[in-house]
């Protein structure tokens, strides 16, 4: 006799005021007051990462109930995408409207983990807004896509503090989603979805009809 599935219960939760109250609604720049918009979001069991229109990343630690702030040096620009990863170290990748990508290696209080905040930059390849980011499970590979169709692969060596990046694929339309697993990168653009095999550097399209 087939078992009867229990009914799905939807539950409404209240806004995260403890998080929102830790993020300013306006900041002063010279004599002007600038409204802060929340532009990107990612979560995992340990953190809630929120990107903003002023180039500030707000990172809320769920275990310590603490909010920390990270920013890019130089020009203030809107953050368009954030991606968290918990592996041996806690990592967060951040992309901006002008194509800057940075990786923050977070400080951990656990024995043998990272004790100093470090930042890695993916420089000089993307020239337009970052629309997607994807980690490998071990944090050694980061893929970034932009609204001009470029996909960049960054190899990170956290022990030596090295980040080497290269352009691996270029599509004719904006990248909307990336996901990586077992040497295969799933790519979705405004026109099609495809599998990019990173070892062979070959492409296999999913489906035959272009998106409209």
From TrEMBL:
<dbReference type="InterPro" id="IPR036322">
    <property type="entry name" value="WD40_repeat_dom_sf"/>
</dbReference>
<dbReference type="InterPro" id="IPR015943">
    <property type="entry name" value="WD40/YVTN_repeat-like_dom_sf"/>
</dbReference>
<dbReference type="GO" id="GO:0005737">
    <property type="term" value="C:cytoplasm"/>
</dbReference>
<protein>
    <submittedName>
        <fullName>TCPR2 protein</fullName>
    </submittedName>
</protein>
<dbReference type="GO" id="GO:0032527">
    <property type="term" value="P:protein exit from endoplasmic reticulum"/>
</dbReference>
């Amino acid at each position: 006799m087939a078992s009867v599935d229990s009914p799905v219960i939807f539950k409404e939760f209240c806004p995260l005021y403890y998080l929102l109250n830790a993020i300013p609604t306006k900041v002063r720049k010279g004599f002007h007051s600038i409204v802060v918009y929340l532009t990107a979001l990612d979560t995992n069991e340990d953190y809630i990462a929120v990107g903003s229109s002023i180039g500030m990343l707000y990172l809320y630690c769920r275990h310590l109930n603490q909010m920390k702030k990270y920013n890019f040096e130089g020009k203030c620009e809107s953050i368009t995408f954030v991606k968290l990863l918990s592996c041996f170290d806690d990592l967060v990748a951040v992309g901006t409207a002008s194509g800057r990508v940075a990786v923050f290696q977070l400080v951990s209080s656990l024995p043998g983990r990272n004790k100093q905040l470090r930042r890695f930059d993916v420089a000089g390849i993307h020239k337009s807004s970052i629309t997607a980011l994807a980690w490998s499970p071990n944090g050694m590979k980061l893929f970034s896509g932009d609204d001009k169709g470029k996909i960049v692969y960054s190899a990170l060596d956290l022990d030596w503090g090295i980040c080497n990046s290269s352009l691996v694929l270029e599509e004719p339309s904006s990248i909307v989603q990336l996901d990586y697993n077992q040497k295969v990168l799933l790519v979705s653009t405004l026109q099609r979805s495809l599998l990019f095999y990173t070892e062979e550097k070959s492409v296999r399209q999913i489906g035959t009809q272009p998106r409209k």
